[in-house]
């Protein structure tokens, strides 16, 4: 399993472009492979936010969603990556995604959502966010709504207008908390909340796409989870016991979500047969 199928693999940071006022103090940098957005060690959310970002992005890619091109890159002291114009990023492995300037974050209007060319991905993103308990787009109770985490890429091709991009998973799995033994708690694995479902998304939820997603969730297993978690650098301080619990969470919750999701999104209908095991 490649880190990302398109082969984007920057190896050297050449300069800092700008700092962003985000929870992880994301920094725009230039590299030998073009500009990207860097999330580095020393950020206020801690190293586990980087692990959540990486694993969430890998799973989004595996799940068939469009993502930013992403990779890992080594930050050195000599790079002098300035964070928010006041301090330097700590050296070590960092998460980086390729910069996309031809796009924007959603403003919350229904008309724009109707103009998305890959509207089938709306269903898929909601199911992904539910599987990963990603509270940083639209929490189940509406207590946390983040329009900035809905990114729309403007394609130049006349055949495709706007594309929905799956991005930002720093608050998946734990809602910004540390990765710890609570990942194994049954109330988290069997959380029945629906994540990422904006009211404007509801008209575009497709039963056919739900069926496709259920089949894909059934394919997720411990070997796939192992390969994804193996990419997490040691420097990000995810202990072996936590990795084991995280693997269990990913597999068990994938299958739980597959059994739950149709009846939660379409409560008026009977539950779809689930092709996976318990």
For the CA atoms, what is the radius of gyration? 18 Å
What is the CATH third-level topology name of the largest domain? Answer: Phosphatidylinositol 3-kinase Catalytic Subunit, Chain A, Domain 5
- Please give the largest β-sheet: 5 strands, antiparallel
Number of structural units classed as domains: 2
Q: What would CATH call the class of the largest domain?
A: Mainly Alpha
In total, the number of strands is 10
Could you explain the architecture of this structure?
This protein is an alpha+beta fold. It has 2 domains: 13-98; 103-265, Phosphatidylinositol 3-kinase Catalytic Subunit, Chain A, Domain 5 (Orthogonal Bundle). It has 7 helices and 10 strands. The strands form 3 sheets. Strands 1-2-3-7-4 form a 5-stranded antiparallel beta sheet, with helices on one face. It has a 3-stranded antiparallel beta sheet with strand order 8-9-10, with no helix packed on it. Strands 5-6 form a two-stranded antiparallel sheet. Helix 5 (207-219) runs antiparallel to helix 7 (240-265). It is globular and about 60 Å long.
């Amino acid at each position: 399993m490649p880190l990302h199928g398109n082969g984007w693999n920057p190896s050297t940071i050449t300069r800092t472009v700008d700092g962003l006022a985000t929870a992880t103090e994301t920094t725009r940098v230039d590299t030998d492979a073009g500009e990207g957005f860097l999330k580095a060690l020393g950020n206020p959310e801690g190293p586990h936010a980087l692990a959540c970002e990486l694993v969430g992005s890998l799973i989004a890619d595996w799940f068939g969603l469009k993502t930013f091109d992403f990779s890992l890159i080594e930050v050195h002291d000599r790079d002098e990556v300035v964070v928010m114009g006041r301090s330097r990023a700590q050296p070590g492995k960092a998460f980086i995604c390729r910069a996309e300037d031809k796009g924007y974050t959603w403003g919350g209007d229904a008309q724009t959502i109707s103009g998305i060319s890959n509207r089938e991905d709306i269903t898929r993103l909601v199911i992904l966010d539910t599987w990963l308990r990603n509270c940083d787009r639209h929490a189940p109770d509406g207590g946390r709504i983040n329009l900035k985490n809905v990114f729309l890429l403007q394609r130049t091709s006349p055949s495709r207008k706007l594309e929905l991009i799956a991005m930002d998973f720093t608050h998946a799995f734990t809602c910004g908390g540390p990765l710890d033994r609570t990942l194994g708690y049954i109330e988290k694995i069997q959380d029945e909340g629906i994540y990422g479902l904006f009211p404007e998304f509801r008209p575009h939820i497709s039963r056919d796409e739900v069926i496709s997603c259920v089949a894909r969730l059934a394919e997720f297993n411990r070997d796939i989870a192992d390969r994804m978690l193996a990419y997490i650098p040691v420097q990000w301080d995810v202990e072996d016991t936590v990795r084991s619990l995280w693997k269990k969470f990913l597999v068990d919750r994938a299958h739980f979500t597959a059994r739950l999701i149709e009846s939660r999104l379409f409560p008026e209908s009977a539950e779809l047969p689930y092709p996976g095991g318990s």
